[in-house]
Amino acid sequence: MSQELPIYIIGALLPLVTTNIAHMVLVKRNAWSTLAIPIYEKAFGANKTWRGVVFISTVNAVLFLLINHPGGVLMSFLNQKQNLFQLLFIGWIFGMAYVLFELPNSFIKRRMGIAPGASANRWRGLFTLLDKTDSALGVSLIFYFIHDVSSLDAIFFFLIASGLHSLFSWILYLRNIKKSF
C-alpha cells in the first residue's frame, strides 16, 4: 500500500458519505420535490428518483473539488495534475457510479415483487448485503480506474466503502432519517 492511498481513500469517500447523508436529510424533508420523479418506476420503483441522480452527482462533484483540490480540506497536493474541472468531473463520476450501481439491485427486487423500501422475505441476508455493497462496488471500480492502485488496494477500498455505507445507514436509521436499515 502506497503512502498516498489513505489520502486517496479519504478524498473519495468523505465527499460521498457527506453527500449521501445530506441526500437522506433532503429526502426526509421532501426538499427538491420537483425532482422527486421516479427514473423508471416500473423497473426501479418509486424511490429511485431524478432528485437522487441530480443531487448526489452534483453535490458530490462540488464536495470532491473542495476536499481534493491542492491545498483543500485534506491539504493534499496529490491532485496537482488535475485542474478544477477535472476534479469536479471525477467527483461527478463518483456520484453517478454510486447512483447507477444501485439500480440493478432495485430492478431485481421489483422483478421479485419486493416493494420499494421494503425488505426481502426470501434471501433477506443476500439483499441486505447487496443493499450495502452495490454502490460501494461502483465507486470502487471508479477508484481503481482513476488511481494507479493494485487490485488488493481496490478491494480494501471496497471493504471500507461498504463498511461506511453500513455504519451510516444504521446511524441514519437510528436517527429516524432512513425508514429501514
Notes on the protein architecture:
The chain is mainly α. It has one domain. It has helices spanning 5-28, 41-44, 50-68, 84-100, 103-111, 124-146, 151-174. 29% of the residues are buried.
Brief rundown of the structure:
This protein has 181 residues and is mainly alpha-helical.
Helix-strand blueprint:
Blueprint: H1 5-28, H2 41-44, H3 50-68, H4 84-100, H5 103-111, H6 124-146, H7 151-174
Helix pairs in contact: 1-3, 1-7, 3-4, 4-6, 6-7
Give a quick set of tags describing it.
mainly alpha; globular; 181 residues; 7 helices
- pLDDT average, as an integer? 89
Number of strands: 0
* Tally of separate domains: 1
| Beta strand % | under 5%
Helix count, per DSSP? 7
| Sheet having the most strands | none
Which sequence of SSEs, written as H and E, runs from N to C?
HHHHHHH
- By secondary-structure content and strand pairing, the structural class works out as mainly alpha
**Poorly predicted segments:** none
Proportion in helices: 55-70%
- Alpha carbon gyration radius: 16 Å
- The shape is globular
Ends distance: 32 Å
